[in-house]
Design brief:
The chain is α+β, with helices and mostly antiparallel strands and 468 residues long. Helix content is 38%, strand content 9%. It has 18 helices and eleven strands. The strands form four sheets. A four-stranded antiparallel β-sheet has the order 2-6-10-7, with helices on both faces. The chain has a three-stranded mixed β-sheet with strand order 3-5-4, with no helix packed on it. The longest helix has 28 residues.
Length: 468
């Protein structure tokens, strides 16, 4: 662990832990380990209890102007249009720089870029199934088996899908009903390059894909949103290759589950429709916010109560009736106003340093219509080319990216959720307990290879599923 003080030691030293315990005992912060009873009743279809400091709300903490918001084209992101945003010649130069640097670092044996790191990243990225609009279509349907399709209430169906996804390896699960004037705008208008086929909704029974478009039935209006954990441990080795394989393994798991979910819905007697390429169906963070899986943050990504920012998100939609889950508030947006750690440690200075989120976008890669901490994605991608990976420093230095479940962390997060008056103190405490150096991993990559007691896939599979 970097630094000389643990969070517990530091907070004890400043007397904050005792104050927080006092607040908790008096009921100001709520009772540890208990979900708010009123919220639980209002959102009865929720299948897993949350921390006591997570509140269900009618509107997300991110302000949205649904009239201004329009369906976005995925290929407008820097994943699809980077050459347009920084110019063809410069784009080629930076891509070559990335290849040259990776080879140079490997030859020099730079920790985190060695041959064993390269080999492991290649390995964990293997095995991802094909990403198909309606899934593999291999499972037999109830009709083919000679039985009626499954029938249940929307609440029963939501619990069933949550249980199935947890068993498949999902971390958290939520549901969003697609409404034409609001949430349906979070589905991309077109699929990613190179095809860029329109994604359209039509009044038909079963959707389809042809050479011109992807068609979703109007009745397939129930979006399933789920996350998978990323390894908090390996992300601490970013921006090296060892750190970047965190994402590679997560996406392999994410889309293995995606194919399984398609097949599960098919075997129940229903239809599902989703991405045809990585992150290609809808705006994942936005869907996660609306489904109550987390809050949008200064990272312009979600932070979850259970895992902080250390998740990847997937979305598909179905005609299986599902009960939607509500957005949540646990103090993230207010905490981000005072924190700024991710922005200050960002090597490319791509993240916003403004105290408050803004309605003004940074570039065409941002989707207008909501108030957020918009990032300069081109600057971010330029640094990716320099370090040779997808960096990840902003994730690893986030105060919410803790890898344990100590009671003190619950007290601190409960305090953040209840009041912002201690935010600056908590930020200072985190900086002292976990000091970070610009462009440097939080831990020595060579030490990771010496640990023979690593967690499976680098994650804590107990978290998120326990009766908290």
């Amino acid at each position: 662990m970097p630094g000389q003080l643990t969070r517990r030691q530091l907070l004890k030293a400043i007397g904050f832990a005792g104050a927080s315990l006092t607040l908790a005992s008096t009921g100001i912060l709520g009772a540890p380990g208990v979900t708010n009873a009123a919220d639980a009743t209002a959102n009865a279809q929720e299948s897993a209890k949350r921390y006591w400091w997570v509140k269900n709300v009618d509107k997300p903490t991110t302000e949205i102007d649904w009239q201004q918001m329009q369906r976005f084209r995925e290929w407008q992101t820097t994943r699809g249009s980077l050459a347009k945003y920084r110019g063809e010649d410069f784009n080629k130069k930076m891509n070559q720089l990335q290849a040259d640097n990776l080879l140079k670092f490997e030859k020099e044996g730079v920790p985190g870029y060695t041959t064993k790191d390269m080999a492991l990243k290649a390995a964990v990225g293997y095995g991802q199934p094909s990403i198909l609009f309606m899934g593999p279509q291999k499972a037999s349907t109830p009709e083919e088996r000679g039985v009626p399709r499954y029938e249940g209430t929307p609440e029963e169906n939501s619990r069933m899908v949550t249980a199935a996804l947890r068993h498949m390896g999902a971390a958290t699960v939520g549901f969003v009903e697609l409404e034409t004037e609001t949430t349906r705008k979070l589905v991309y208008q077109e699929e990613p390059a190179p095809t860029k086929k329109p994604i359209v909704f039509e009044n038909i029974d079963v959707g389809y894909e042809d050479e011109k478009k992807l068609v979703i039935p109007e009745k397939a209006r129930y979006a399933i949103v789920y996350t998978v954990q990323m390894s908090t441990e390996t992300m601490k080795y970013g921006p090296t290759v060892l750190g970047s394989l965190t994402t590679s393994l997560s996406y392999t798991r994410l889309y293995t589950i995606y194919a399984q979910l398609h097949e599960f819905i098919r075997a129940l007697g229903y239809h599902s429709y989703g991405a045809t390429a990585l992150n290609g169906f809808g705006i994942g963070p936005a869907f996660a916010v609306m489904a109550g899986l987390g809050e949008l943050s200064r990272l312009n990504r979600i932070i979850t109560p259970e895992y902080g920012p250390m998740v990847r998100v997937a979305v598909l939609t179905t005609d299986l009736p599902l009960a939607p889950t509500k957005p949540i508030n646990f103090g993230v947006m207010d905490f981000c106003k005072d924190c700024k750690t991710c922005a200050e440690m960002c090597p490319s200075k791509a993240l916003s340093m403004d105290r408050d989120p803004s309605w003004e976008i940074k570039g065409e890669w941002n989707n207008p219509g909501h108030r957020a901490y918009f990032e300069d994605s081109v600057l971010c991608r330029n640094y990716w080319n320099q370090c040779g990976t997808n960096c990840g420093i902003c994730f690893s230095v986030c105060p919410y990216a803790v890898d344990d479940d100590a009671s003190l962390h619950r007290i601190v997060k409960g305090t953040i959720a209840s009041t912002s008056m201690f935010n600056s103190v908590l930020v200072a405490a985190d900086r002292m307990a976990f000091p970070a150096q610009p462009e440097q991993p939080l831990k020595n990559p060579e030490d990771w290879w010496k640990d023979t007691n690593l967690a499976e896939m680098g994650i804590d599979t107990r978290r998120g599923g326990r009766r908290i």
